[in-house]
Design brief:
By secondary structure, the protein is of the alpha/beta class. The chain has 5 helices and 9 strands; from the N terminus they run H-E-H-E-H-E-H-E-E-E-H-E-E-E. The strands form 2 sheets. It has a 6-stranded mixed beta sheet. Strands 6-5-9 form a 3-stranded antiparallel beta sheet.
Length: about 190
């Protein structure tokens, strides 16, 4: 087993990061910096901090094969107690990188009319949060419009622009790079101009 450190002050750092994640979700497109960890294996610092803060024994985590090295798997299990999902359809948290494709996105749970809370949170490791093509955001938490430019995989970009599922169904996206996080909740309207 290849155990790495989690939070050095678990209560304080979990609370601080939880507040930052809530800020990012309530103000889509506003970047925040998560603290307290260096990352596990191929999981970057922000992805690791998200899992340490939000994952627990009742939230199955699916790690993409590209990120599921021994260090990531061992530490997710040890530090969070979260079960590792065998399939995307069984996950509460999906953690992946630039390799995610359209077929995989369609497998990610988006909730049901009766239980929309069963929609997954997709933690997407990207190369940059500010060096991609500009997208325009509107909706709850945005006064008029907010512009972002993360480097997104083509499949994710198309998914966000199309948003074929009506609210309250959908996937909440947490885009992470190094220690940075930018959220795109399912309520956010994403357009390009």
């Amino acid at each position: 087993m290849n155990l790495l450190s989690g939070f050095s002050q678990p209560i304080d750092q979990s609370q601080q990061n939880f507040r930052l994640i809530l800020k990012a979700l309530s103000e889509p497109g506003v970047p925040v910096r998560l603290t307290g960890t260096l990352g596990w294996g191929r999981l970057g610092a922000a992805a690791t901090a998200v899992l340490l803060t939000l994952a627990d024994g009742e939230t199955p985590v699916w790690l993409s094969p590209e990120l599921a090295d021994g260090a990531a798997v061992d530490n997710v299990r040890f530090h969070t107690g979260a079960p590792l999902a065998d399939s995307l359809a069984a996950a509460a948290f999906v953690v992946c990188g630039q390799e995610i494709g359209e077929a995989q996105l369609l497998e990610v749970p988006c909730g049901t009319e009766i239980s929309p809370e069963r929609g997954a949170t997709l933690v997407l490791q990207v190369d940059h949060l500010d060096r991609g093509t500009t997208l325009h955001l509107s909706g709850p938490g945005i006064e008029t419009r907010r512009d972002i430019a993360p480097s997104l995989p083509a499949a994710v970009r198309e998914y966000l622009l199309a948003r074929t599922r009506r609210f309250p169904l959908g996937i909440d996206f947490l885009l992470v790079c190094a220690d940075g996080l930018l959220a795109l909740p399912r309520t956010t309207i994403v357009e390009e101009r």
